[in-house]
Amino acid sequence: MTYISFDFYIFLAILLIVYYSIPLQVRWIAILAGSVLFYYKICEKGIWILLLTIVLSYFAGLLTAYFCQNNKIRKLIVCSFSIILAFVWFVLKGGFNTASSTWIVPVGISFYTLQIISYLIDIYKGKINPQRNILKYALYVFFFPQIIQGPIPRYQQLASQLYQGHPFQEERFVRGMQLILWGFFLKLMIADKAAVIVNEIFTKWEIYKGFYFWTAGILYSIELYTDFLACVTISQGVAGLFGVALADNFRRPYFAVSIKDFWRRWHISFSGWLRDYIYIPLGGNRKGTFAKYINLVITFAVSGVWHGNGLQFLVWGLLHAFYQIVGALTNKVRIKLYDIVSLSERSGMRIIIQRISIFFWVTIAWVIFRAESLEIGLYIIKSMFSVFNPWIFFNDALLKLGLDWKEWCVLLLSISVLIGIHSKQEKGVCIGDFINSRSVYMRWIIYIAAIICIMVFGTYGFGYYAQDFIYGGF
After folding, report:
1. Which of the listed residues 61, 263, 344, 453 has the most CB atoms within 10 Å of its CB?
2. Per-residue pLDDT, 136
3. Where residue 292 falls among pLDDT bands split at 50, 70, 90?
4. DSSP string, 60-108
5. DSSP letters of 272-285?
6. CA distances from residue 425 to 119, 238, 251, 356, 434 in whole angstroms, order as listed
C-alpha cells in the first residue's frame, strides 16, 4: 500500500471520514492509528524497530530536558543517542547488510533518523520543549504522509498542526486534491516513462555508448526529480486533506543559476538539515575560507554516505562540494566575462546560460549517482565525451529502448508542460490559485480532463511498492 496504489486511497477515504466525524480534540488519535496501520502494511516486522526507536528517543528527550542544569550530561545523552541512531541506520542500510537481515529494515529509516536527531538536538539547544505525551510524540514520527520520503520535518513546524484538530475546509481540501493530481501527473506521465529508457541503458551499459548515455543521463535527471517531487507533492496533498501543511521540499532546482542555488532548491528539508546540524556546528563559514571549504567537503560527504553505501554515492557528494568550491573560486572571473560580453545579472541570455551549465554539471554527477558502481559511472562519462554518434536521434534507434514514438511524444509533451508551469511559478504565478479563480464548471472540466489524460496516457503497472519511488530506497 503506497501513495499510488488503489488500496491507499480506500484507506485514506475511510480515515478522512473517521477524522472529520469525531471531536476536534481527539482527531490526532485517528491520524496516529491510521499512521501505525499504514506503516505496518508497508513494513510489517520492521515496525518494531521504529517503535523501539520512538520509545528510546522519547525518554532521551525527557532526560535531556531533565538535566537542563548540567550541560555535560545533556550533551552526552544527545550525542550518545544520535550515534546509536546513526549506527543502527548504518547497519540496517548496508554497513553490515546481509540477505537474512534486509527484511527487517524499516521503510523511511533514513528520513525518520534525521527527524529524531534534529528533535533531540533542538531540545538540547533549548529551541523546543520535549513532548510529554508519548503517543503525541509517536504521531510526530509516524505521520504517514511524510514518513517514507519526507520532507524531513522539524518538531516546531509540524507538531502543533498534528495535535490540534482541524475543521473541514473546502478550499484546503480542494488544494490537497490538486496536489495529489499533480503528483500523479509527475509520476505516471514523466518519471515512470523516463525510467523505461534510463533503466534500459544503465542496466545494459556494456552495449550502449556516446549519445545513448547523454539521453539516459538527461532523462535520469528528469526522472529522479519528478519521481521525488511526485511523492512529496502527493504527501503534501494527503496531509492537506487533514488540514496539515508540509513544507515545500523543492523550488524548481533545475532553474538554479549556481550549484549553491541548486542546493537551496533541491531536497530543501535535507539541505537545511545538513546546514543546521552538520555545516554550521562544524563552523560554517565563520573560521575562514579554507575551513569553510573543508566544512563543505565534510557536509557533502555526509550527504553522499546518507544516500547509499556504494563508493559512487560518496563521490557524488564530494563532486558537489568540488562544484561549490570551484564556483566560489571562479566567481569573479565569470562575472568579468559576463561584463565583457555585456550580459547583465538579470539578462535573460545570462540566466539561460547559467541554468544550462548547472543542469549539465548536475547531470554529470547524477550519472555517477545512478550507475551501479563508480567504475561503471566513470566509463559512462568517458563514453559520453569520447563517442560521437548523434545519428541515433534520426535513425529510430531510440524507439528500440522501450518506448514507441507515441510514448516518446507523451513524455516530451509532459516535460514541456512541467517546464511551462515551473516558468510561471518562477515568476510568482500560483497555478492552483489560477484554477481556483475559474468558475466551478471550468474547474471541474480541468480536473476531469487531467484525470482522463493521466489514466489514458500515464504509465501504469501492477505491484507498486515504496521502492518504486526512487527516494523510498534511501
Report:
1. 61
2. 95
3. very high
4. HHHHHHHTTT-HHHHHHHHHHHHHHHHHHHHIIIIIT--TTTGGGPPTT
5. HHHIIIIIHHHTTT
6. 32, 22, 9, 19, 11
Predicted TM-score of the model (pTM): 0.90
d(CA 456, CA 413) in angstroms, rounded, equals 15
Q: Is the separation of the CB atoms in 222 and 195 below 8 Å?
A: no
pLDDT bin (cut points 50, 70, 90) of residue 467 is very low
Q: Which residues touch 316 (CB under 8 Å, ≥6 apart)?
A: 304, 307, 365, 366, 368, 369
- Write down the residue that cell numbers 534511501 correspond to: 474
The conformation of residue 209, written as its DSSP 8-state character, comes to -
Q: Give, rounded to a whole angstrom, the gap between the first and last alpha carbons of the chain.
A: 18
Three-state DSSP state, 153: coil
CA distance 409 to 407: 5
Contact 249, 430 (CB under 8 A): no
Q: DSSP letter string over 394-433?
A: TSSGGGGSS--HHHHHHHHHHHHHHHHHHHHHHTT--HHH
User: In 10 A of CB 420, how many CB atoms?
Assistant: 11
Distance (Å, whole) CA 429 – CA 445: 21
Q: Measuring CA to CA, how many Å separate 158 from each of 152, 153, 450, 463?
A: 10, 6, 31, 32
Find cell 550519472 and name the residue. Answer: 367
Q: Which of 258, 238, 457 is nearest to 350 (CA)?
A: 258
